[in-house]
Specification:
Layout: E1 2-12, E2 21-37, E3 42-49, H1 62-70, E4 79-86, H2 96-111, H3 118-133, H4 141-146, E5 149-151, E6 159-161, E7 168-174, H5 180-185, H6 193-212, H7 215-221, H8 228-231, H9 238-247, E8 252-255, E9 262-266, H10 269-285, E10 290-296, E11 303-308
Parallel strand pairs: 3-4
Antiparallel strand pairs: 1-2, 1-11, 2-4, 2-5, 5-6, 7-9, 7-10, 8-9
Helix pairs in contact: 1-2, 1-3, 2-3, 6-7, 9-10
Length: 309
Amino acid sequence: MKATAFSPASVGNVAVGFDVLGHAVDGAGDRASVRLTRDGAVRVVAIRGVVTDLPLEAERNTAGRALLALLPHAPAGTGFEIELDKGIALGSGMGGSAASAVAAVVAANALLPRKLDIAVLYDAAVDGESAASGSRHGDNVAPMLLGGLVIAPAQGAPVRVPVPEWLHVALVHPHFVLETRRARAALAGMYELHGFVEQSEGLALVLAGCFGRDASLIRRGLRDVIVEPRRAPLIPGFADVQRAALDAGALGASISGAGPSVFAWCESRELAEHAASAMAAAFADAGLASDRFVSRVDAAAARVESLGE
C-alpha cells in the first residue's frame, strides 16, 4: 500500500508567540509518498523538487526521523519507504523542514490499520523537524497538522485558535537563504524582564483579538520586541519591508519563523495583496527578488491526496 500526503507551508512564531504559535499558509507545500513495508526499517528513497541535496539517511532526514518516531506506535515489523517532493525552499522561514515531516506522518498514518491520534503524530513530526533545526519546537508542525492558527505546546496535543474569516496574510519570501540554526544562534545572550512582559501582553491581545474578531486588538498586539530585534540584521532590507507592509495597511508585520520571509496580517485579501506587492518592491530595492503568497490565516491542514496499491 502507498499513500501520498500534502503539507502546507506555515508562518512560525507569528511575532508574539516564539516557538509556540504558528499558522498554515495556502499556496506552497511539500508532498510525501510513503509505501508500507514489512521489514521494520525506514528508508528515504528519493527527493525531488526545489531542494534535492538533503540526506537520504533516515535519522538525518526530517521525514525519515519522523517515521522512525512513529514505528513504536505501529504493528511489529512495520516499515516505510519515503519519496519526497519538496515545494518549500529550505532556509526560507516557511516551515520547509517541518512540512516534509508532517506530510510523511500523515501519509504513514493513512496506511496503518489503527489510526494514531493527533498528539502522537504531532510528537513524531516535531521529533522529525528537529533533525534540521537542532531543537524541538512545534510552531510549524502544529498548524500544518491542524490548519489555521494553532498553539503548539511542549507536551500534549496542539490547540487550534479560531480566527476571523476576513483575516489574511501576505507572505513574501526573498531569494536569500537564512539557515534556521544560524537564526537561532542570533538569539543567544541576556534578555530584560520587561521585554517578556511586553511580549506576553502582545500575545494576549492577539489571541483576544482572534477570539473576539477585533482587528484593533490584533493591531495593538502584533509586534515582536524580543526576537525580531536580534534577527532583523540578518535579513537585507527588513526594516523597509516591514514599513512597506504597515504603510499598506497591515495590522502588523514581522519575520516568518526564522526568516528571511516576512509576513503581514491584514483585514482583507485585497489589503493583503496590496501589502505583498509593497513588501516585494521593498525587497527589490534591497537587491532581492522574491516570491509572494497571499492566504487566509485560517488555511487548510495537511491532507492525504491518494491512497492505494
